């Protein structure tokens, strides 16, 4: 029971820029649906879909615009406060999942987060084809919490390994190419100015410049593309789940269909 937009092709009135802006917005929403359809479904066989809906005040605004003879291009950003994008779940057969409410995203949230995230996920489809990912966000949250607890003790040991052997600060360590000893960049610069020799083996550092140093990468610094793609999809689902729920408005206002006013 939502007021779905229907944009008319005739835009010869003073509100032509209003219609054109809504046409572009609807086209972007349909493009987002195309990107969402390409994402592999999880075990529950549901995927996300979106549609552009408007507040009941948008119908009254359209009536007002039909009586105002002025260019509304400067007022278009204000109109978008009356519109939002409804994000909802559909089954594999295209039927909406009626057991849950949709999520309400503002126009800025759609262009700032949802559409760029779908474009990023679409570029990594090969890595997501065999990923076991669904919309069970409760199971996902439990999995993340369990992994965080299991990594709590291992991270303590990793921090000790990532400490600089000179200043004992946790940081990214640089490796000397001649002797393979490591230290932070600050200690390297200080020690190079003092003695131009390695503090561990006293090897010469006279011909070693800062651009010759190697960066010591840790386990957390290297992530394969499949894992990164799954994490991107996890974060996208969690963001959608954090959006406010969208409830239908009063029935006596729903009958002001936008298409009947054009």
From TrEMBL:
A single GO BP: protein ubiquitination
Keyword Metal-binding: yes
Keywords, in A-Z order: Metal-binding, Zinc, Zinc-finger
Record Pfam families: zf-C3HC4_3
RING-type domain mapped to chain residues: 164-202
GO molecular function terms attached to this record: ubiquitin protein ligase activity; zinc ion binding
PROSITE patterns from the UniProt entry: ZF_RING_1, ZF_RING_2
InterPro entries in the cross-refs: Znf_RING, Znf_RING/FYVE/PHD, Znf_RING_CS
The protein's name in its UniProt record: RING-type domain-containing protein
Lineage, highest ranks first: Eukaryota, Viridiplantae, Streptophyta, Embryophyta, Tracheophyta
